[in-house]
Amino acid sequence: MSNKFTSLEQTRLEKIERLRTQGIEPYPQRTERSHTTQQAILAFESAEAAQAGDPLVVTVVGRLRSMRPMGKITFSHIEDGYGRLQLFFRQNDIGQEQLDLFNREYDLGDFVQASGELFRTRTGEITLKVSAFRMLSKAVTPLPAAKDEVVDGQVVRHATLSEPEVRYRQRYADLAVNPEVRQIFKTRAAVTRAVREFLDRHDFLEVETPVLQPIYGGAAARPFTTHHNQLKQDLYMRISFELYLKRLLVGGFERVYEIGRDFRNEGVDRSHNPEFTMLEFYMAYADYNQVMDFTEQMVLYVIDQVLGTRQITYQGTQLNFEPPWRRVEMRQGLLEVTGIDIDLYQTAEELAAVMREREMQPDPKAPRGKLIDALFSDYLEPTLVQPTFIYNYPRDISPLAKSRPGDPRIVERFEGFVGAMELCNAFTELNDPLDQEARFLEMGRDYASDDEQRHPMDEDYLRAMRYGMPPTGGFGMGIDRLTMLLTDSPNIREVILFPHLRKED
């Protein structure tokens, strides 16, 4: 037997061999199931309320979560995806040989099938009196317990699965032993479902755009690069859906959205993962003011549908999502927290100088837009705990947004912040092809070729714009971050099933 197995695993492997020598397949091909554990309990309660005379016979399946042999009887619990049910094995019902087989060859973590009558014990617990059972899948590695358990008044201590990195690396074990983690991902699915419902009800069309793109764009991020062998062409994992979705507006669709994966070759922290889920929608004949109102409605709809309450606490703070959200112009917000009026400093050199006067440490090579972004990230963003829209951004850091009338230095862009992190980003979309081309050229000139803020020229997108793109309000939101808020999760890795981690040593 391979020495890669622990002694406990070797013991379970020996049980597999013994089962097979007895003609019992530990991994059979077929399963029978008449009820989930939840259905069985509800059916019994219904029959009990109706005072039905006939016993309720069911067949259930699930993972063994507890085993308590007590002489001629054994109590056990199984757990499926819907709940738990107690099993009662008695020598008089199944015979001594079968009882011994269960106690000797079955272990916690095994998947089993059990049939019998339901009854209520003296302590009031609905229980299956087992008349037949069989193995469905033998677990070789024992699962850690989620926490210590109390059995017959005694605390039974287990190896627990609580270290975050171990939980992320072994998400399968994390899900198996921590029901609250399973609930996070049920909530996540409900978030996505509610977003779709809201957009579908407002006449949006869900679409799919390319994940592999010949030119990346639509966001300020460094892409992952790959290569197509047959085409002999480098391609990029998309960093945004934006430029493809806006091509669809040129083609005649007025409201489109996509929920899918983006990939950004960037750092990892509590709110960033290299692979994440985004919602983007584009609404023809709308501007950023209308999109702000629409965002408030959408987020509130999702909260209502998913939680059934608007009382949300995130990391100890009560959040109020009732419209209208607080709205703060970026210039004013920065002035309040830093004392710097960015409009007074129109070059990078001037802005860097005043930052140094206030004992800040600006990057001496950064263009003006990156300096403003650094001021925002370091000083204003940490204060934005309650739902807040920051609006009217400098043109320097928003190459795809339309300028405000009468002030070409400022664009009609907003970002929504909750819990001191960005939740969404939106523009009145730039639809002037000549202005857009000038913006691309400007970004290419002002930013180094390896700078993630640099936006490459997309000639095909410009060609599409020249056919005419209607006035449009565009929007992007992180599904992961919204799920963080609705599940009170402090780290994005808690809401991604298999987050990216460093390679194990």
How does this model look, in words?
With 505 residues, the protein is an alpha+beta fold. It folds into 2 domains: 7-142, OB fold (Dihydrolipoamide Acetyltransferase, E2P) (Beta Barrel); 180-325 and 386-495, Bira Bifunctional Protein, Domain 2 (BirA Bifunctional Protein, domain 2), CATH 3.30.930. 34% of the residues lie in helices and 27% in strands. The chain is built from 15 helices and 21 strands. The protein has helices at residues 7-21, 37-49, 91-94, 96-105, 164-169, 171-177, 179-201, 242-250, 288-307, 330-338, 348-357, 368-380, 433-446, 459-466, 479-487, and strands at residues 57-70, 73-80, 83-90, 111-120, 126-137, 149-151, 154-156, 205-206, 212-213, 225-228, 233-237, 255-263, 275-284, 312-314, 317-319, 326-329, 388-394, 403-404, 407-418, 421-428, 472-478. The strands form 5 sheets. Strands 8, 12, 13, 16, 17, 18, 19, 20 and 21 form a 9-stranded mixed sheet that branches. A 5-stranded mixed beta barrel has the order 1-2-3-5-4. Helix 10 packs across helix 12 (368-380). It is elongated and about 90 Å long. Mean pLDDT is 92; it is low at 154-159.
What number of domains? 2
CATH architecture of the largest domain: 2-Layer Sandwich
Name the overall outline.
elongated
Under CATH, the homologous superfamily of the largest domain reads Bira Bifunctional Protein, Domain 2
> Spans with pLDDT under 50 lasting ≥5 residues?
154-159
Tally of helical segments: 15
Helix content: 25-40%
Biggest sheet, in brief?
A: 9 strands, mixed
User: Which CATH class of the largest domain?
Assistant: Alpha Beta
Q: Structural class given helices, strands, pairing?
A: alpha+beta
What is the fold-level CATH name, i.e. the topology of the largest domain? BirA Bifunctional Protein, domain 2
Average pLDDT over all residues: 92
Rounded to the nearest angstrom, the radius of gyration is 29 Å
